[in-house]
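To close the section, here is one more complete example, presented without commentary so you can practise reading it yourself. The ligand is adenosine-5'-diphosphate.
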Amino acid sequence: MLNIILFGAPGSGKGTQSDFIVKKYGLQHLSTGDVLRSEIKSGSELGKEIDSIISKGNLVPDHKMIHIIAHYLDTLPNDCKGVIFDGYPRTVEQAEALTLLLERRNMEAVMIDLAVDEDEVIKRLLNRGKTSGRADDNFETIKKRIKIYHEVTKPVCGYYLKRHNYFLINGNYSMEDTFAQVDTILSLINKN
Ligand code: ADP
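Output:
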């Protein structure tokens, strides 16, 4: 199994790169942001709770996220070639939980970190906000999401670096040129 954690700031291109990877490698794509937004759309009580968290740019509590991931792993098809985790883990606690959940299934995950300059990230998110309809794609909330990213999420890199499961690439380039770097790493890992 080829399990990839696509990591990076909001707007670093995790979703876009996931689409490229799915096309070439046939992996399952788990975007926790998409899962949460579909819960909001359903209008459930949980969805309302999540909405009030996300629209303020805050993180959904770890225990809720870990529950979502555990459920997702339980429902993977038997012929699954691997998973792209897009938007998870966002805290060290989430990373530790993922390690346990994967170990129980004799699996592990490799992190690919998309490094993108802050100016570029803000530009992309403001641009996306014109059409995304996402309540969190406005300047105030973007700033808050980036702050939380640096304070709470960024340390997750260290967790994977220590485990020697970490690759850093430059995500400032075009989608295609960024994917060329991702692809080089994936073809290398896929061989082993
Ligand atoms: P982006 O990476 O562009 O900020 P996402 O679609 O990945 O967007 O996530 C949107 C929001 O969903 C986050 O700002 C956060 O509120 C919530 N979220 C997504 N994944 C997680 C997670 N693993 N832990 C906590 N909250 C999450």
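Once you have examined the tokens, check your reading against these statements. The pocket of adenosine-5'-diphosphate is lined by residues 10-11, 32-33, 36, 53-54, 57-60, 65, 87-88, 90, 94, 136, 145 (CB under 6 Å). The two ends are 11 Å apart (CA to CA).
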